[in-house]
Amino acid sequence: MRFLYVANREIQTRKKELAIYAITVILIMLVNETASAIYSRYTGNLTHETIYSGFFPGLLFVGGFILTSLVFVNDMFSKEHQNEWLMLPATSLEKFLAKGILTAFAYPVALILVMTIASVFIEALMLLFFGSPFTMFNPLVSEVGSQLAMYFVWQSVFLLGATLFHKAHFIKTVLALFVLAIVMGLLGMLFARIFFPLITGISPFSRTISFSFSSVQRIEDVAGLRVFITLGKIIYYAVLPLFCWVTAYFKVEEVQATDAV
User: Fold this and answer.
1) What is the mean pLDDT of residues 136-160?
2) Using one digit for the tens of pLDDT, what is the confidence trace for 20-57?
3) Mean of pLDDT values over 216-245
4) Which site among 19, 198, 222, 225 is 20 to 30 Å from 38 CA-CA?
5) Beta strands of the chain (E only): which ranges?
6) If you average pLDDT over residues 184-201, what whole number do you get?
7) Does the keyword Repeat apply (predicted)?
8) pTM listed for this prediction
9) 207-232 burial by CB neighbour count: b if 16+ within 10 A, else e?
């Protein structure tokens, strides 16, 4: 019950901002679809491209990451509301999970529901007034599933950034990821330089490497590389999010234990 109370508090304190966000999204879709339908009607084109499939990833990733980055800004790092948050009748875990679950799971679900329901009404209006084909947002395509899985991974990174940085959480997290990407790229090049020759039998000192598609297997079919690819997927989809969530929780626990000193 305490967890539900904390989760409901999170929703109530941000319902105005979330309502404005949802209305803005709906208006953008409505204006774009109306303009597209008018253009198609007067050019004689019976079909028109919808905004939904291209609009959803931007809202999911950019909107979700910004929302996640700001999730602790009014509690852990705000002098006005810090004491109120610390004195809530809930454990650090409950406070952390309320924010983490809402941004990791509730936000994507709510976004899908808003876009699906809004697209139904918008497409019905376009069909009624302009005779445009009914092409609503379809959340059941495989691309949406892949985007949700990727969102869960990177949301955990921004959740960690929200607890580590005191200001400019989103910008600092992006910059940290940029630096980390450079370091990982250099390490990856070093790794490939050392281990790829051991797997394929190609000399690491060879300046030119040529492949014959008729005689050389695809990289994914090399047994050694399949192991690394599988290991990489486990680290990416399971280990990385778990590490970020646990580390972020301990940061919240530290703030709770020290009364945000």
Assistant:
1) 93
2) 999 999 999 999 888 888 887 777 666 666 788 889 99
3) 77
4) 19
5) none
6) 70
7) no
8) 0.83
9) eeeeeeeeeeeeeeebeebeeeeeee
Q: Which two three-digit tokens encode residue 244? A: 């970020």
Check residue 196 and give its pLDDT.
61
DSSP 3-state of 257: helix
Q: What is the pLDDT of residue 191?
A: 75
Tally the residues of the chain. Answer: 261
Between CA 198 and CA 200, with CA 199 as vertex, the angle to 5 degrees is 100
DSSP 147-197: HHHHHHHHHHHHHHHHHH-SS-HHHHHHHHHHHHHHHHHHHHHHHHHHHHH
Q: What is the mean pLDDT of residues 210-234?
A: 62
33 exposure class (CB count in 10 Å sphere: 0-12, 13-18, 19+): buried
What integer pLDDT is reported at residue 44 of this predicted model? 67
Interval 6-23 mean pLDDT: 89
For the chain, helix (H) and strand (E) counts, in that order, are: 10, 0
Reduced to 3 states (helix: H, G, I; strand: E, B; else coil), residue 61 is helix
Q: Which residue has the tokens 């490497």?
A: 209
The answer to whether the CB of 92 falls within 8 A of the CB of 252 is yes
Q: Is residue 174 exposed (0-12), middle (13-18) or buried (19+ Cβ within 10 Å)?
A: middle
**Which DSSP symbol is given to 47?**
-
Q: Which two tokens stand for residue 88?
A: 């809530």
